[in-house]
Amino acid sequence: MTDRLVIRRPDDWHVHLRDGAMLEAVAPHTARQFARAIVMPNLVPPVTTVAAANAYAGRIRKAAGPGFEPLMTCYLTDGISPDEIERGYAEAAWVAAKLYPAHATTNSAHGVTAVAKIAPALERMQKIGMKLLVHGEVTDKAVDIFDREAVFIERVLAPLLRDFPGLKTVFEHITTKDAADFVTAGPATLAATITPHHLAIDRNAIFEGGIRPHLYCLPIAKRAIHRTALRKAAVSGSRKFFLGTDTAPHAVQTKEAACGCAGIFNAPVALESYLRVFDEEGALDRFEAFASENGPDFYGLPRNEGRIALARAKATAPERVKATPGDVVCYLGGQDLGWRYEGAVA
Ligand code: NCD
Ligand code: ZN
User: Fold this and answer.
1) pLDDT tens per residue, range 38-57
2) In this structure, are residues 171 and 190 in contact, taking their beta carbons and an 8 Å threshold?
3) Do the bridges between strand 307-312 and strand 69-75 make them parallel or antiparallel, or are there none, so unpaired?
């Protein structure tokens, strides 16, 4: 039995770091485990300009401390200027742009109402090699919440890939067998991130003995067959799947509310929570590629140089992280993780 794993230093390809006091509270947790992270732009107001991305990157560096590199993203809005997008890419202000269907999730009110509205931007991104990141859910209220990802593939993603065959696209935080199958069978330009929680829970967990707001996120966890398919994809050895935690902090009072926010905060236990799954699947040998190789390879960025270690040990996850305007409840808080993150090794 493998009791200690030493791997190339990993990156997180999907995080929400927020801003202000919340940024200061959460950023060190991501920086503790990851060398780089793709930072989502869904602030209020969203990050839509080069100036805003540069300023935000500066605040992140300050909050995270040395040795952490934020990889910024641009929030796509209807009619966004292709020139601004290209300028930010050329100046390395951002590495990708994020498509949020309008009103699909937290802070997405300024999102895209129809792909046609961002066609000039996508054309330009395809031309310059800039990546498109997609929140894959339709917002049509007539579509059942558990079907919104599968319907998105058919109505939006498949046509988009047909129209922009050279555009490198990441289907973010996939939650269904439909998505895992679609990505597996799709072109080499298509990849996906998978969160630790979607590998571990199914929709029953959200309602176990009562309503569990801290397991509510978007896209919402689906049936067990979908979790099984995601686990299979993650450990398959396919280079198209990689680590993206979608860690999404919300102050406790905004989660435990009559209308609670979507988002699971997993940054303090990110690597341990993934590793548990790979261990259960008998696939510890596949973890390094998923965590540290497939992401940079897809993005065309160098792999990290350093190494980190994780050891099989009793390790209790923190219940909460202190923050303003309220503490953030941690995924798996109080549970034994079975693995301990030991940090950098020579
Ligand atoms: C994210 C957030 O809180 O910003 N919430 C979530 O449930 N994942 C937004 C998102 O990624 O959908
Ligand atoms: Zn997200």
Assistant:
1) 999 999 999 999 999 999 99
2) yes
3) unpaired
* 105 ligand 1 Cβ < 6 A: yes
Look at the chain and count its residues. Answer: 346
CATH ID of 4-345, from 3.40.228.10, 3.40.190.10, 2.60.40.10, 3.20.20.140: 3.20.20.140
pLDDT digits (tens, 9 = 90+) for 211-259: 999 999 999 999 999 999 999 999 999 999 999 999 999 999 999 999 9
Atom of ligand 1 nearest to the CA of 173: 11
Give the ranges where 153-223 is alpha helix by DSSP (H): 158-163, 177-185, 196-200
Which candidate in 178, 246, 327, 336 is catalytic? 246
| Residues 6 or more apart whose Cβ sits within 8 Å of residue 254 | 260, 261, 326
Token pair for 221 = 């966890």
Count of CB atoms situated within 10 Å of the CB of 322? 8
Asked if 322 and 313 count as a contact pair (C-beta separation under 8 A), the reply is: no
Q: How far apart, in whole angstroms, are the C-alpha atoms of residue 106 and residue 217?
A: 10
Closest-CA residue, ligand 1 atom 5, reads 263
Domain ranges of the chain: 4-345
In this structure, the strands spanning 307-312 and 4-8 are: antiparallel
Q: Which two tokens stand for residue 112?
A: 């895209």
